Structure formats: C-alpha cells, structure tokens
Amino acid sequence: MMDSRQKKLVLSVINNKPIHEGKVSDEDFLAEFPSGCDNVSEFVTKLLIESCVSMDAQCVELSLYVGFHFGFSGADELILDKLLVCDFHYRHDEIVRALVLIGASTDETVDALSKCALTEFDYLSDDRDDGIYTL
Question: Model's pTM, two decimal places?
C-alpha cells in the first residue's frame, strides 16, 4: 500500500515531459519509490495487485497512472480483470482502456468485461437517472 510520500511521488512523475517545477524524472521516480522489483513492468503489476488487495480506491487510481505512464504488460491482464469487477473504486473505464492497450482477449477478460457492463455501480447512479449512463 502506498504511503502519502509515495502518492505524492506518483503525482510528480505524471506529465513530467519536459521536466518542470514540481515534477521528477522517470529515473528519479523509480529510484525514490522502493519496489523491490527487477523491472518497471513487474513494478506496475505489483502496484495494481497491492491496490486491489488493500481495496484502496485512491491507490487503484494512482496505480493506473503509473501503468499508463510506464506501460502495462500482458502480465497485468489478470489483475486488471479482477479490478474491473470490483466495486470499491471508480476507475472502470480506465481499466477497460488498459485492457485494450495490452490487447487483452482471454476468456477471463471477456467475462470480466461482460460482468462489468451489467453491473450497476453506485457511483454511476446519477448518470443512469439522467439517461447518460455509459462505461
């Protein structure tokens, strides 16, 4: 689970090109964010898993930021499928986008997409009432 310093660090690496005030380079981010991982791909997967296990909506959001910044891999498909059907966060549309980026096409992904599409998440209730419900 990310502590407050790590959360700030994630926000400081997003949109960091060119480097400007308040931003850190990718290299500095990876050096300052202890992960115990051998590579960035493994790091992204670890963040996604930790955010799911901790059921922390903000960590899901920040983990997705890191994934979109550094890139997702096929190894992320399973945890993205799991996050797609969880109701403790509000980032289902971004998870679908991540699955598209990695070309996810397993039966598990199809099932997760179907389940997500049929789920009435509470945070979308106002949109359903207005007739603008889309995921």
Answer: 0.89
